Amino acid sequence: MMFGLFKKKKKEKLPQLTDIDDNPLVVGDLVDVLRYELGKCKLVVVEESYFYESVKSGEQVSWLKMIDASTDRQKVKKIIPDSE
Fold it and tell me: What distance in Å separates the CA atoms of residue 2 and residue 12, rounded to the nearest whole number?
């Protein structure tokens, strides 16, 4: 008997990210990146991992490089549009 040899592997779920002020982040959010002089970036998913993509240059930086060691939050500030 073959016990589970051909079972599909579970996809790893991406972690919930929060900005420096503890605001939850979702794919497509615009943020000000507080490192690497990237400026305004969009949160995107590439090959099952988060990246911050610069609106100006298109440069991408992994979310892992944005972890604040003291809080485990991202070193980014979510841009919240005015609700007018």
Answer: 24
